[in-house]
Design goal:
It is a single chain. This protein has about 80 residues and is an alpha+beta fold. About 25% of the residues lie in helices and about 25% in strands. The chain contains two helices and four strands. The chain has helices at about 15-25, 65-75, and strands at about 10-15, 30, 40-45, 55-60. The N and C termini lie far apart (about 40 Å).
Length: about 80
């Protein structure tokens, strides 16, 4: 059963590449634009129009350096 649309959501992972492979190869998402945050990650899209389709944010968690993700999730300015 294909996925028709997803709401905007994030997935935290310590294995960014394995997560990308699953969402792209199994579920059919495509890698698209992602701002230059100070932590690893990939934004995935369904279809060709990034404005109309649900975005999956894969957030790479570096267990040796959590500061970038901490700054992104906090109220502090980046």
């Amino acid at each position: 059963m294909p996925i028709n649309k997803l709401a905007h959501f994030s997935v935290r992972t310590t294995d960014l590449e394995a997560s990308r492979q699953f969402y792209c190869d199994v579920l059919g998402f495509k890698v698209g634009f992602r701002p230059a945050f100070n932590f690893p990650g990939i934004w995935l899209y369904q279809g060709g129009d990034e404005a109309d389709y649900g975005v999956v944010h894969l957030i790479g968690v570096d267990v040796n350096n959590l500061q970038g993700l901490t700054d992104y999730l906090s109220d502090k300015p980046q």
